[in-house]
Amino acid sequence: MKMNGKIAAGITADESYAPELLNPFVHHLELGTTYEKIKTGIFTILLLPIRVVIICALLIAGWLIAIIGLWGLKEEDLRERPVTGWRRKLTGLVCFLGKTTYTAGGLHMVIKGRQASRSEAPILVIAPHSTFFDGGIIYVTGFPSIIVRRESGANPYIGKLINFTQPVYVWRDDPDSRQNTIREIISRATSPLDWPQILIFPEGTCTNRSCLITFKPGAFYPGVPIQPVCIRYPNKLDTVTWTWEGPSALKLLWLTLTQVYSYCEIEFLPVYTPSEEEKRDPKLFAKNVRNVMAKALGVPVLDYTYDDCKLMTRAKEMNLPNANSLVEVQKLRRRLGLDQTNVEETLIDSQIICKDCSKITFTEFAKYLNLSTNDLIVQQLFRYYDKNSPGVIDFREYLLGVLATSKNRSTLDSIKIACKIYDSSGVGKLSMDDFARALNHTLAMRIEETFDIFHQIDKPRLNYVTFEKFQSYAEKKAEFAGLFSLSKEEKFKPRNDNNICPEYDKKNE
């Protein structure tokens, strides 16, 4: 079935569709020229060992000073009152060693603007957050308190330096952790005691600095003046950006330490004093501060969140079709009200939804979802799956993508849905090809592996399997134990917080 001219024009109009979703969670890094590869090889041999030795010596020195500064103090003491006297003076020494460590690694920090005092701005808001190298800002800003997981503070090495900042801890196993953290931030920011400033990365995760994503409101609940601080890395070769999809931490550290030098630019913007309306509405306060910072950085703002980051990561780990665009697809669904109607679930539970779901036109797409073909949002949604603009999409990819990433489904539930979607028989009997697609797009299994499992399940040689037979088979196999012993939240647990990028936890699990 062909689209009429009006619909086709509406779909292809630039104002109604962005050809490629701006993905702030992806970073590609390759040494593009022979010169860069040779230089990196030479510096790996000549420069890297020297820098590593110096950095390790400085880190050990800072660690020892932190131990001295914490001597005689209990954790309760660090939470109840700020350190004073000789202990506070030691923080200046730690900052000097910290900045020297970055200089030894070839990272030169360029400071613009003036840092406000605690009385002027109790909270420092830092963005964009794009790398573990951002941690160097604590030495530039005089060792402020940070927001950090309690587990990080328990680390016998880096934990000493973290504890010396008198951080606000996040207790992951406490169901009231979020509320308690907010209360502690408010208490510190409004306290008459001489607490250090609080430093917060409000994006809550690492991006590639192509935009500013949604700011979490935690830093803005106290309703006190804050100072926005922008971070830039104006280097020809970006060896620092650490995102959900990109180089590992070890590769970034290696490539950065083998550069002659790298630059980090830190700009202190004027203190932002909230209006009465912003004091009453932390989300509005956060949004307005983000706009100010985005303007200073010259980048757009996008309403992505940490939860979007988790969704995208889960989609990629499962090998869901069109994983890169599922965040935007889910947002369009919400705008269309599809998340409330459950129309997609109703479709897959029906006997036959289309003669060939691998090829449906825009008109059919709108009809199945009970939507108007004249709605620009519907047209935009279709185009996310209309690869190379042939005018047809694989409706199964759409159904699996949106259903597997909604309502906190477990992986096992997603497999069940995939078996329904790819069931060409319509009665629950999956052919080998149907079964292969279902496991390939939920467990990211290679096709050859799925064929082998199919034959193991289909001992009677019926040339089909069912989801129930697969479930019985999987329960007896150790490699599938995670489908039954772990909840979705445990299997795809959060991998970063306000100050730590995702791969740090991944590498240390």
From TrEMBL:
GO terms for cellular component: endoplasmic reticulum; membrane. Its main location: membrane. It comes from the Eukaryota. One of its GO terms (molecular function) is calcium ion binding. GO terms for biological process: phospholipid biosynthetic process. The chain crosses the membrane at residues 45-70. Pathway: Lipid metabolism; phospholipid metabolism; Phospholipid metabolism. It is found in: Membrane. The keyword Lipid biosynthesis applies. Residues 373-408 form the EF-hand domain. SMART domains: PlsC. Gene3D superfamilies: EF-hand. Pfam families: Acyltransferase. Keywords: Acyltransferase, Lipid biosynthesis, Lipid metabolism, Membrane, Phospholipid biosynthesis, Phospholipid metabolism, Transferase, Transmembrane, Transmembrane helix. The keyword Lyase does not apply. Belongs to the 1-acyl-sn-glycerol-3-phosphate acyltransferase family. This is EF-hand domain-containing protein. It comes from Ignelater luminosus (Cucubano). The lineage of its organism: Eukaryota, Metazoa, Ecdysozoa, Arthropoda, Hexapoda.
